[in-house]
Each structure stands twice: as structure tokens, then as C-alpha cells.
Amino acid sequence: MATIITKEQQEKEKMVTLVSSDSEKFVVEQKVAEKSHVIKMVMNCCGIESPIPVRRVKGDILKSILEYCEKHSKGEAQEVMEKWDKEYMDKAEKDLVFFHDLMLASHFLHIQELVDLIAVTFAGMLKMKSPEEIRQKFNINNDLTKEQEEHIMTTFGWAFQPI
Amino acid sequence: MKIRIRSEETKETMRFEIPDPCSFSDLKTLIASKLSSSSNGLAPQSIRLTLNRKDELSPDSPSATLRSLGITSGDLIFFSFDPSLVLDPMGIDSNEKVVPVAPISGSVEELLGSEKKLEEGTSSQGETLDVDVEDGSELSEEDVETFVIEKSSSVPCFLKRVFDLEKGVAKGNLGLVVIAVHAVFLESGFVALDGSGLKLPGGWATAVGTISVSYTLPELIGSDAEKDAKVAVLKFSLMGTYVSIYGFLNVGGSGVHRACLDVSKLLPLLCLPMDSIGEMEEEVVFKFWKGVKDGVSLPLLIDICDKNGLPPPPCLACLPTDLKIRILELLPGVDLARVGCVNSEMRYLTSNDELWRKKFLEELGPVNENGGVVARWRDKYAMHWLRMKEIKRGRLFLRPHSSFRRYIRFRPFTGGRPYLNDVDDFGLGPRSGFLPRRRRNISLHCDFDQHDAGFRY
After folding, report:
1. What CATH number should be reported for the domain holding residue A125?
2. Is B389 in Cβ contact with A135 (below 8 Å)?
3. Touching check for B112 and chain A: CB below 8 Å?
4. ipTM of this predicted structure
5. What are the pLDDT digits (tens) for A120-156?
6. Residue ranges of the Ubiquitin-like domain (chain B) (predicted)?
7. pTM of the full predicted structure?
8. Which CATH class is domain B157-318?
9. Which H or E element spans position B389?
């Protein structure tokens, strides 16, 4: 019994400090931080005693990512997780800039599960939209020349037929 | 223009199709890179080119065109190595020898004359000449087959446009790489500082050693803040066949983004006419494009917007290429096609046939490949998709479909293999060479030749 308690205590002690690009500090359990492959490698080689700077990620993004990692390190039932993921994504996709930064950061930190989740949500945003709607939503310039556009219509024109 | 290049030592002949105009140094680079694949790295400067195996071709400047030296299509050029110059890791024309111009002012007649002189010479040279003549006849036969121009997809388009503008300015391998990177940067939305439009600022090619180019954004030009605007600086250096590109902002605190790319496969392509690039070569260009874009240009774009207080660049455009591809893989085919119409980058990414093969197998099930006519998966997908729709509408058996066959019947095959890589021209129209077979598989009661009602998509 006594050994178990010490183990738990040891686990508790294994906290790591992450510092975002705008110098915000986050103290999380090691197993939460380990969700990121990159941070895990840093911890393996440099230890967890000193704070780990995450230079390319801003505080609000890092906070959101750690929230995800924490939830996913608990090992809850799949249905619970799916529901939580959906809510998490619903919240994130409201702000496109935030959503985009979240994807870049999770890619940078190598959190494959989160990258996959965001990619699926992103694909969902592109579905059932015309090219013009996509351009507007994501603020993309149409840099195609007239000839290229005509060309595209010969290759992809079929996708615009009414179903 | 097609030329033959023969080694003086091994007598081995290579055939090149080179752009017209092609500069003298381009040709040397091309030869060096062709040979480098078999042996170790060769410096283009170490190559000696002659027309008659005696007098070295040495134009006033390495950027002189071959045409100005009197070299025309079908010519035979000999090459050998100058051992004192074989190792030159920088690949820059810094130690270009200044040699007086060889007395070849010529034309085809003169060249023929020099070959005739050879014939009159010793017997061993005469033998070589016989081979030459055979080669000449071979070449004319091959004209039809080997040199059929295959239309490539949109990949090298951005490169081509920029190269057309900068042609002749490039100096050495590094110069070529700088132009290729310049093309990627333009494509990402940067403009060269002090440059005009698409062009690089003048004088960049004269720099020896490390080349540095500065970029800014169109939004920052002409604004009040132009003087204080932070610009992105790129530095290039070449070591052997690896080029390192460092990108950073001219302000402290921003990180340095670096890409190190192996350009040994890219360089020969940059010397070739962009129109003749095939699928394998496209892969090489794509890898380079991706490396530069994800490694340097996109991170710099995000940095430069951030530091200058501009709104962040468009969300979808700034994702690394891997992520974009990941997202595209998750889309159903019909949405993929629509996304492909958004801009040139998406058009390019959705032209990947492997992606369409996956879509086809995912959505339309395994298909029995009969071999024979090779078609693009994208077009196969389109066809099957439309057919499925027709079936759903219940129209399939009301409309016989022989119009495709009619097209095929009247379209002459021009030899070569024009259908294999014929990417962009391929619509749903007349060139769908594989259609009749596929049609026959599903239309059970249809006699193609009797029903002639026009069925078109």
C-alpha cells in the first residue's frame, strides 16, 4: 500500500513547465506533455527540470492544445472522447485564424491525433462549396488566368453539374 | 533544338534536346549533370567543348547563346575534361577561363566542312566519321518518336514564366537555383525588393559566393510605412549539389528558416525546356517546390505579416503542403474537383493522380484493370462518377453512347505515346481514348455502331 502512494506521489511530482512564444508559462503533468512527440523528445534528452520553451506557439494556442492533451491522456471511453472532440472542434472552428494556428501548432508539435482531427474538420469546411465560396471563406486570391480557368472547366467541369 | 554530344575519350554519344536559345554555360551544366549521375560531381567549368576536337569553343561570355556560336539543331559537339578544373564545389563561374574566341564563326556549312576535313585525315578519324553519318540518319528517324512533345501539367508553369523573364541572366548552378526559388517566392505572394514586377533586382547575378535577395509584400510597397517595413532576406549558398537557403527578417528576434535541398536532379531540368517535362521530372520539381515553400517561404510569410502588423496570410494557403494534401485526401472526389478550381496551387495539388486513384478505389470500388490504354485516374473517376449519376437518374439505357467512338475513329494517332502524359488537355471530350472499352463493359445491350444519337457530357 505504501509503495502505491509513493508511486502516485512520484507521478504527481513529474510536472513540466512549458513556455509559449509570448512567455506565458504552463505547468502540466509529464504524461500530458508527452502527447506531443516533439516535447517528448526534448524531455527525453534534456530532462524536465528546466522550463521548455515552445517558441513558435502563442499562449492561447498552447493553452488550447494542452487542454486537448490533458483530456486525451486520461484514457476515457471512446464515445465520451468523440463527443468531447466534437465540442472542442466546434469551438475552435469558429475563429478561422485560431483554427489555422491550432493546426500549424499541432503539426509543429507533432500531435498526430490532433492534426488528424483538425484535418477532418477542415475537410468538412470545404465540402459542398463552390470554388468562389471557398475563396471567400478562406480569403484566397484567384490567380488563375482565363485560359487556365477554361482548361479547368474541361477537366473538372463535371463536378459542377446539378445532381 | 536537338544536338548530339560525344565524349572524346569514350566516343559515347548522348542526345539532348535543349531550349532555344540555350546559353553556353547552360549546355555545360546540362552535360555535367548528366555525367554526374554516373560518376562523382563534376564542375561545368571543367568541360571543354569543341566542334572538331581541336579548337575549344570559348565564347566571350558564358551566357552567349549556342546559336551565336553557329551551333544549330542536329550538330555534333565533342567534349572532354580539363582535369585542372574538375573539382569546384561552389559551381560558380568564378574561375572561368578567358580564352580568345576560337575561329568558328560559323554555320552548318562550315561545320560540315570541318567534318569533311576529318574525312581526308587519318584513317582512324575516318572511321569515326562513318559512325557520325549513321548517327545522323538515326536522329532523323527518331525525330518522330523520341521528341514528341508531351504536354506537362501545371507544375512547372510558374517556373517557366519566371525563367522566360530571367533567361540569360543566370550564372552557374547557383544562379539557376536562385531563379527557381524566386519563382516559389513569387508564387507564395512575395515580390522582390527593388525588382520590377516578376523580375529579380538587377545585379544579383554578379555577386560571387553567397547570393542574397530581399523580398517584401505588395501591401508594403507604396505605403507610408514602406521605409520602416521589415523585409525578408534570403541567402543562398551552394555546396556540391546541395543548396542551403536561409530566410530571415531584417529585424532582430525573428528566427532563421532554413532549407537544405539536393538539387542534383533539379539542375538538369532547369536547363531543359519546361514544356518537355514528364511525370518523373515533375516529381523532382514538386519536391523542390515543397521544400522551399514549407521550409522557408511560408514561415517567412507568416513572420513578415506578423512583424509588419498585417493581417495573417490566408488560412488555407499557409498550411504546409503535407497538411494540405492530408486535407485533400479526406475530401470526396466531387469536392476535390471543386477545390481544384480555387487557385493555381490547388489546381496543381489536385492534379496528383495518386490522389485520384485513392478516390476512385474508395468511392467507386475496385476496378478490373485490363491494361492496354493507360488513362489518368482523375479522368476515369470523372467518367465513372458521371455514369453512376446517369444510373441513378435511370437514363443510362435511354441514351446510347457512340459519340466517343466516333471521335476515336476520326482522330489520327500521330505516333509516339501522346496519350500517356497528356494531362491537361484531357477533358471529357474527344481525346478520351479509353472510353469505348469501358463503355462496353457496362452497356450490355448496346450496339455502338447503330445508335448514333449524340451523347455528350
Report:
1. 3.30.710.10
2. no
3. no
4. 0.87
5. 999 999 998 888 999 888 888 888 888 888 888 888 8
6. 1-77
7. 0.61
8. alpha beta
9. helix B377-393
